[in-house]
Automatic annotation (TrEMBL):
Species classification: Bacteria, Bacillati, Actinomycetota, Actinomycetes, Streptosporangiales
Protein name: Aldehyde dehydrogenase family protein
Species of origin: Nonomuraea phyllanthi
Superkingdom of source: Bacteria
Pfam families the UniProt entry points to: Aldedh (PF00171)
Molecular-function GO terms, alphabetical: oxidoreductase activity, acting on the aldehyde or oxo group of donors, NAD or NADP as acceptor
Domain called Aldehyde dehydrogenase: residue spans: 6-437
InterPro entries hit by this protein: Ald_DH/histidinol_DH, Ald_DH_C, Ald_DH_N, Aldehyde_DH_dom, Aldehyde_DH_Superfamily, ALDH_KGSADH
Transmembrane segments: none
Length: 489
């Protein structure tokens, strides 16, 4: 059985949920696959209407949902209300994507017999994967990266049915959200839900599953990849894994603003963000160091989402204990509470201890690395693993030349004078990066997240009457297309 727990006390709460056995997984995936046949053929405009209905349903239940999630996560009303709004917003964004139509990347090359050899009529567009998408819910976002999260929204938008493996950290919230979403969809079978670790293994190995999305740890991602490798037919795996999100503070950066922003970003949500600033390079000097100490000492810890996550944080802090403790916040309250901690070392010592010292410590912990000259940073930045984000703080763009080129190869999102926590849901957002931050170059947030669940099809000399609407000469859907090499908006 799967039980919810209160992170503040560690006590079991709510109803018990049975683990989904192999037969149950097969039944849920099979039902989703059957519903998906109709869903794939549903016009994009109708799918957009369905996504907006889901968004409206989630927003209408916000009072109930935030309270239920708070019992299982202790994330608080403000954070959870905002997350429900973000989750509904993701569905609305993908409704816009569908109505725009550019996501299919329609291309038409008319026949040209004058070429040698003659060119046939070729037309290409992206279409939904023919099968079920498996989604593994994340612990740290019970709405935005869970049952109704971005993976689910983008896959449904693409035309794919979804089966979610619920996270054990919020099983009750998962069940309730799934019910709300199902009631808003044309068929409830378009969204399935399974509970339990073995159910996750059965899900990703089910022959009806054609792709998988995951947000979690490197170890968890590798375990899913091993299961996929055992399949008779391989499938793509889109995983968002570990990230330290380096921050480079250059000499011209304002001291007090940097220190305050760092402390706030580090401890937001008890540091349980994939974009947490786990590593910061700062110029030597007492002023910035003292400001960081003051800012961090003014913070407080809090309960982690699960006992296992709390234990992982404590293990990470123990590993970082070989460095010097620079500052720590006030202890948090609760059985699973932790204390924010910031360690420090110089750039030479840090480089000697790579790569182990730069492994992610999930929670409110970070390393402040001091340097004497900006030129020292290039070699150490080259040795960092990939991250979701990289940040530069400076008031003089000219002084950033030593680091920007390297950071551009090390992260999927580059930030200037800001902080990585907080990922805007918009058309241009990219939430991914080089390994181990992600398994592919695709994004899990933003309009182009839909690309993961699409595959291109080319039609050669195909009869006009049999072509998809998106590829007919008259362009009945009025979507952007490239025709004979020219982009037509």
């Amino acid at each position: 059985m799967i039980y919810g727990h209160d992170p503040r006390t560690g006590e079991t709460i709510g109803a018990a949920f049975p683990e989904t056995d192999s037969a149950g997984v097969d039944s849920i995936v099979s039902a989703a696959a059957a519903a998906g046949t109709t869903w794939r053929a549903t016009p994009a405009a109708e799918r957009a209407n369905a996504l907006e209905a889901v968004a409206d349903a989630l927003a209408a239940h916000v009072d109930e949902l935030w309270q239920l999630a708070d019992q299982e996560t202790a994330l608080g009303e403000v954070r959870l209300r905002g997350e429900v709004a973000r989750t509904a917003g993701q569905f609305r964004l993908f409704a816009q994507v569908l109505r725009d139509g550019g996501y299919v990347e329609a291309i038409i090359d008319h026949a040209d017999p004058s070429l040698a050899p003659p060119r046939p009529d070729v037309r290409r567009m992206k279409r939904p994967l023919a099968g079920v998408v498996a989604v593994f819910a994340a612990s740290n976002f019970p709405f935005a990266f869970s049952v109704a999260g971005g993976d689910t929204a983008s896959a449904l938008a693409a035309g794919c049915p979804v089966v979610v493996k619920a996270h054990p950290g919020h099983p009750g919230t998962s069940e309730r959200v799934a019910k709300i979403v199902r009631e808003a969809l044309p068929s409830p079978d378009l969204l399935g839900l399974v509970q339990g670790m073995q159910a996750g293994a059965d899900l990703v190995q089910h022959p009806g599953v054609v792709a998988a999305g995951f947000t979690g740890s490197v170890a968890g991602g590798k375990a899913i990849q091993r299961l996929i490798d055992e399949r008779e037919v391989p499938i793509p795996f889109y995983g968002e894994l570990g990230s330290v999100n380096p921050v480079v503070v250059l000499p011209s950066a304002p001291v007090k603003e940097v220190a305050a922003g760092f402390a706030g970003s580090l401890t937001l949500g008890v540091g349980q963000f994939c974009t947490n600033p786990g590593l910061m390079f700062v110029p030597e000097g007492d002023e910035l160091r003292d400001a960081i100490v003051e800012a961090v000492e003014g913070t407080s810890g809090g309960p982690m989402l699960a006992e296992r996550i709390r234990d992982g944080y404590l293990g990470g802090v123990e590993r970082l204990g070989e460095l010097r403790l620079l500052a720590e916040g006030k202890p948090g309250e609760g059985s699973w509470a932790v204390t924010p901690k910031v360690f420090t070392t110089d750039v030479s010592t840090f480089e000697e201890k790579l790569p182990r010292v730069a492994e992610e410590c999930f929670g409110p912990a970070s390393i402040v690395v001091t340097y004497r000259d900006v030129a020292e940073l290039r070699s150490v930045l080259e040795r960092l693993e990939g991250s979701l984000t990289a940040t530069v703080h400076s008031t003089d763009p000219d002084e950033a030349g030593e680091v920007t080129e390297v950071l551009g190869r090390k992260a999927g999102r580059l930030i200037w004078n800001g902080w990585p926590t907080g990922v805007a849901v918009c058309w241009a957002m990219h939430h991914g990066g080089p390994w181990p931050s992600a398994t592919t170059s695709y994004t899990s947030v933003g309009a182009t997240a839909i690309d993961r669940w699409l595959a291109p099809t080319a039609y050669q000399d195909w009869p006009e009457s049999l072509l998809p609407e998106e590829l007919k000469d008259a362009n009945p859907l009025s979507i952007p297309r490239r025709v004979d090499g020219r982009l037509q908006a």
